[in-house]
Structures are given as structure tokens and as C-alpha cells.
Design a protein that fits this description.
Layout: E1 2-5, H1 9-19, E2 24-25, E3 35-37, H2 49-54, E4 61-65, H3 71-85
Parallel strand pairs: 2-3
Antiparallel strand pairs: 1-4, 3-4
Helix pairs in contact: 1-3
Length: 90
């Protein structure tokens, strides 16, 4: 499991997540395939801004659960999504 934050907040996190081609968007991060989610609109959807801050859920946070795909494919996919959405990583 890898968690990271991108510049540009939640809107960019969604854009990056939706540009990925290897990892699939999911609300649950268990499986053999790579899955990706943004906590603000999945696992922590019902929390207030204050509760998100207390839980250390930052704007722009992405969770990537790496599956059995080759690491090179995942990295290339992530780099492509970050490049396509601009601003670089967080």
C-alpha cells in the first residue's frame, strides 16, 4: 500500500486516479490487481473537514494498493497520469 499526496488538492487527485490505466479505481483496496482510491470520496466520505484533518487525510491524497502487475508498468502509468494532469507530485 502506498499513500501519497499530489499538488492541486482533491480535484487533481481524482484527475490523476481517473487517468491511470493499470490500476483500477476502487472503494476497497483488497485484491491481486492494483487498485486506487481517494479517501476523501470513498473510505472517509462522511467525515467533516475537521475530522479529515484529525485523521490526517490531506487534500490530494491518493491510496494505491499495488497488485501483481510489473512495477515498471505501475510506475509508468503513475508518471503518465501525473504528467497529464500537470503540477508534479506533492
Amino acid at each position: 500500500m502506498v499513500t501519497f499526496t499530489v499538488n492541486g488538492g482533491n480535484a487533481r487527485a481524482l484527475a490523476v486516479m481517473r487517468r491511470l490505466e493499470v490500476a483500477c479505481e476502487a472503494t476497497s483496496l483488497g485484491g491481486v490487481e492494483s487498485l486506487v482510491s481517494t479517501p476523501f470520496n470513498s473510505s472517509h466520505f462522511s467525515l467533516t473537514r475537521e475530522e479529515l484533518t484529525a485523521a490526517r487525510i490531506d487534500d490530494g491524497m491518493i491510496r494505491l494498493s499495488c497488485g501483481l502487475e510489473p512495477a515498471e508498468a505501475l510506475l509508468a502509468d503513475l508518471n503518465s497520469a501525473l504528467d497529464a494532469t500537470g503540477q508534479g507530485a506533492g
